[in-house]
UniProtKB/TrEMBL annotation:
Domain Potassium channel: 66-132
Keywords: Membrane, Transmembrane, Transmembrane helix
Classification of source organism: Bacteria, Pseudomonadati, Pseudomonadota, Betaproteobacteria, Burkholderiales
Protein name according to UniProt: Membrane protein, ion channel
Annotated source species: Paraburkholderia piptadeniae
Residue ranges of the TM segments: 6-27, 47-75, 114-136
Pfam families: Ion_trans_2
Gene3D superfamilies to which the protein is assigned, alphabetical: 1.10.287.70
């Protein structure tokens, strides 16, 4: 089991770094965009902001699935990237079909990736929730003025 943790650790750190960068970019761009269109209460501004945050965080999660898939290929668990990516996605989103199973030697990478994935989706969800809450607060403030 220790070899699973050692193999997964660099991938988990890379995923955490990637998620951190994407969250920081999303929040900075969101704040910048919101201040640029501060006087506008247009629906398109809110929609554009929320879609951008959702797309960036979703793309980040897809990239992390691809990183895990690359690890599986590197370890020789899968011969093609498509199968590795499918298996990675099933683990990352904690779906756990079980139709493709890794060898006994590397099987613990599945639950490790699932723990990483559920954490990353939680972070993505919190960023989206913060954006939605900001839109609600912004419009509540406009109505009071």
């Amino acid at each position: 089991m220790l070899h699973n943790v050692l193999a997964a650790a660099p991938v988990m750190v890379l995923c955490l770094l990637l998620q951190g960068v994407v969250v920081a970019i999303c929040l900075r761009r969101y704040a910048s965009f919101r201040s640029t269109f501060q006087d506008q209460a247009a629906l398109w501004v809110d929609v554009l902001l929320l879609i951008t945050v959702m797309l960036l965080t979703l793309l980040c999660n897809f990239a992390q699935m691809a990183i895990w898939a690359a690890l599986f290929i590197l370890l020789g668990e899968f011969s093609d990237f498509t199968t590795a990516l499918y298996h990675s996605a099933v683990n990352f989103i904690t779906l756990g079909y079980g139709d493709i199973v890794m060898s006994k030697q590397w099987r613990m990478l599945g639950p490790i990736e699932a723990a990483n994935g559920i954490l990353m989706f939680g972070v993505s969800t919190s960023v989206m929730t913060a954006a939605v809450m900001d839109v609600i607060k912004y419009h509540a403030r406009l109505q009071r003025e």
